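Severity: low
Component: inverse-folding endpoint
Summary: output formatting inconsistent between runs
Steps to reproduce: submit the following structure tokens with default settings.
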């Protein structure tokens, strides 16, 4: 059974930092794609950052130069270091993964088959 376990959410003031982590259990091998998505109240879920098994990472424009993704392919873990957080970063953050080979790296919900339960990030001004 595949399970994605997230940790690291919380509340910070604007300009603060948080680090989110996600461990994928149950994959037979390493994940091809791992990513973070977020959903704010009343808004659609959006892609934040994603990384492939080769270490290539992509970010949505609003978090570039503030967020950094890292991963351990062998351990199927991915972490998102979030610096200089802004109130507009407030959302529930979801870890997502895709074990299948051949998928192009993208911030597209349809490219990820497994999801975590979500962890709340709240940034106050």
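Observed output (run 2 of 3):
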């Amino acid at each position: 059974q595949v399970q994605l376990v997230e940790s690291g959410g919380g509340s910070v003031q604007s300009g603060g930092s948080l680090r989110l982590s996600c461990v994928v259990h149950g994959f037979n091998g390493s994940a091809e794609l791992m990513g973070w998505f977020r959903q704010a109240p009343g808004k659609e879920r959006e892609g934040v950052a994603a990384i492939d098994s080769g270490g290539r990472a992509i970010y949505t424009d609003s978090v570039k130069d503030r967020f950094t993704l890292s991963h351990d392919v062998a351990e199927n873990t991915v972490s998102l270091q979030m610096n200089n957080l802004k109130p507009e970063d407030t959302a529930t953050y979801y870890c997502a993964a895709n074990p299948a080979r051949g998928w192009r790296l993208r911030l597209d919900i349809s490219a990820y088959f497994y999801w975590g339960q979500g962890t709340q990030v709240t940034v106050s001004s």
